[in-house]
Design goal:
Number of helices: 10
Strand content: 25-35%
Oligomer: single chain
Structural class: alpha+beta
Order of helices and strands: HHEEEEEHEHEEEEHHEEEEEHEHEHEEH
Distance between the termini: 39 Å
Helix content: 25-40%
Largest sheet: 8 strands, mixed
Strand order of the largest sheet: 1-2-6-3-7-18-8-17
């Protein structure tokens, strides 16, 4: 079984957990290693649900903070094992998961092991299947089986944020837009009706769609409506009778899921639209006292999070939440995914200082 040394530095620990492949649905080896590493820690009460591990302090503090990170990655594309690189004088750790989000997870594991007497009680969560449909997300499952574990006054997700604080997140919605036709031999195309050709207006509307910028509680979120996948066709000599365009709408946290769905249907009016996945966004949550203390402790101003993260899950439960982790979000899922070594260390210092401040 793979083993993790939680006494190692946070950079070395990042390297170690990245080098244990854990593409969504295949997290068991890494989950086993995390469970084995944190279970012996006397100051933590450890619970496991599938490949999600929760570790909690019970110190009787007046406030509780939930700090969470997912352990899965998108598929590997010849970018493991990790390696050390230097670009323009900056030292990086390169490889799948270094940005999204094993750098943040490594920091959390190290601090969970070392902080036996923090100023707040802490619930640490390391969970599976974040990179796939929300119904497979480890936190979705945990919310059904142990909703009490989500109790807290503030939550921090270790998602990549360039070592700064990113408040809230956009919501996300996926829809399948269909066109239908009639099959025929392509040598006699006039006998059929081409479903792929009928999809052209869908692509035109999406290409011409003007994304909005919307201010929510002082942070400006940018929306986007895009085709992300298209499928159609039967064979090289058959006029297709079906075409499906998958559309992704990233919407500001001021919209509800119902609002987002209605908007997509308006933009694509006249076409068959099936909503296949949706998750609400989260407002910034920066007005909470603990959030203000955290922001002051780690320094810098807050920015909006454009991608969806599980801060939305905590926001829906009434727990204000922010994103705080090493790595450039624009390199998440990128084949050249890499994180500055200094950012991992800076995030560790910032989080440690806030959790141990008197």
């Amino acid at each position: 079984m793979a083993r993790l040394d939680l006494t190692a530095g946070s950079v070395d620990l990042t390297r170690a957990i990245c080098d244990i492949p854990s593409v969504s649905g295949d997290e068991a080896t890494l989950a086993d290693a995390i469970f084995a590493a944190v279970s012996p820690l006397a100051h933590l009460d450890v619970y496991r649900d599938g490949d999600t591990i929760v570790a909690r302090t019970h110190l009787g503090r007046a406030q509780r903070v939930v700090i969470a990170g997912h352990i899965d990655t998108v598929p590997i594309n010849e970018n493991l094992p990790t390696r050390d690189i230097v670009d323009d004088g900056v030292a990086y750790l390169w490889g799948r998961g270094t940005v999204d989000m094993k750098g943040g997870t490594a920091v959390q594991l190290k601090l969970a092991a070392e902080l036996s007497d923090p100023r707040v009680d802490i619930t640490w969560m390391w969970y599976d299947n974040e990179e796939v449909d929300s119904d497979r997300n480890g936190l979705t499952r945990l919310a059904r089986t142990r909703p009490d574990l989500f109790a807290g006054d503030f939550a921090i997700l270790g998602e990549p944020s360039n070592g700064g604080v990113e408040g809230g997140c956009n919501g996300t919605l996926r829809a399948i837009v269909r066109t239908h036709g009639v099959r025929s031999h392509s040598a006699r195309a006039w006998m059929g009706e081409n479903a792929i050709h009928r999809a052209a207006p869908i692509l035109t509307r999406l290409a011409e769609y003007p994304p909005r910028e919307i201010e929510v509680d002082g942070l400006v979120y940018r929306e986007g409506l895009n085709a992300v996948r298209i499928a159609g066709g039967v064979a090289g000599n058959v006029i297709p009778d079906l075409c499906e365009v998958e559309v992704n709408f990233r919407f500001a946290p001021s919209r509800t899921v119902a609002d987002a769905e209605a908007h997509v249907r308006r933009v694509l009016e006249g076409f068959e639209v099936e909503i296949v996945d949706a998750a609400a966004g989260a407002r910034p949550g920066l007005d909470a006292p603990l959030a203000q203390e955290f922001l002051a402790a780690v320094g810098g101003g807050a920015r909006p999070k454009y991608g969806w993260t599980d801060v939305a899950r905590f926001s829906a439960l009434g727990v204000p939440a922010v994103n705080y982790g090493p790595g450039d979000p624009s390199l998440a899922h990128h084949d050249q995914e890499r994180v500055p070594v200094a950012q991992i260390e800076d995030v560790e210092r910032g989080l440690r200082a806030w959790l141990t401040a008197s």
